Amino acid sequence: MEVENDKVTESLSIQPRLSYETVAAKIVKYVASRGLKPGDKLPTEQEMTEMFGVSRTVVREAIKALASNGMVRSRQGSGLYLADETQSANILPFVFTATIKPETVAQLFEFRCFMEKEIVRQAVHKITVKELRSLEKALKIHRQGAETGNREIFHQGDSMFHRVLAESTHNIFFIQSHNNLWHLLQIILEIAVGETVGSWQRAVEQHQKLFDCIKDGDEEGAVNTIEEHITSSSNPYLQAISNVMINKSYST
Questions:
Q1: pLDDT: which is higher, 85 or 196
Q2: 0.70 cut: is pTM over it?
Q3: Phi/psi class of residue 39: alpha, beta or left (left: φ > 0; alpha: ψ in -120 to 50)?
Q4: Which residues make up the CATH 1.20.120.530 domain(s) of the chain?
Q5: 234 forms bridges with which residues in the sheet?
Q6: Residue 252, Cα to own-chain centre: how many angstroms?
Q7: pLDDT of 73-128, one tens digit each?
Q8: Given 1.10.10.350, 3.40.50.620, 3.40.190.290, 1.20.120.530, which CATH number is that of 98-251?
Q9: CATH number of the domain at 20-92, please?
């Protein structure tokens, strides 16, 4: 599939900003530090904007990410609340405790790999020229973040790349499942590790290889590449979480 390069080689003036996943993680940390319980009221959007030093739009995106996984809910005219345990699909106890275990995160990565392999299978055959341009633009943003060492830009490109892949399936269930899982995984990694680990350059190279496979209609190559990508990106995080747990055990 041919892509019109003149439409994707435009200058990228991406402004680094605190990602909504990071803000969502900060909200979770706030809940844990205050000992809030399911059903307790949370600060208002305006209060969170001031607390975290971000725009109201980013706060709303963070709340939406938490709500999509059943962690918070809003009451019209009343405000934002932690979801009741019966409404949280067992996610609240997992996220709002201090024990995010490597084996649980490994299960998340395992499920992500299973889902994204099917997403790229679909994408190879269904992606449009417009979506391919968007995928290439995301790759350029991702590379810019890696080359400049800017974590927020790096994550913007990463998030956009995988979102476009999901959207290219043209299947609302793949899209929604991907978005929910992505939000949850990013929030948990931000809480557990608090930094981006692993090789940024390798991630960019794997995205480039995946882009090329999809553009060329190479289904087998695309599936193998996404599996390699998720495996190589998950291992450093799992090791980092293990190290955090070891350090905590020594300090107690």
A1: 196
A2: yes
A3: left
A4: 98-251
A5: none
A6: 31
A7: 888 888 999 887 544 444 444 454 445 677 878 888 999 999 999 999 999 999 99
A8: 1.20.120.530
A9: 1.10.10.10
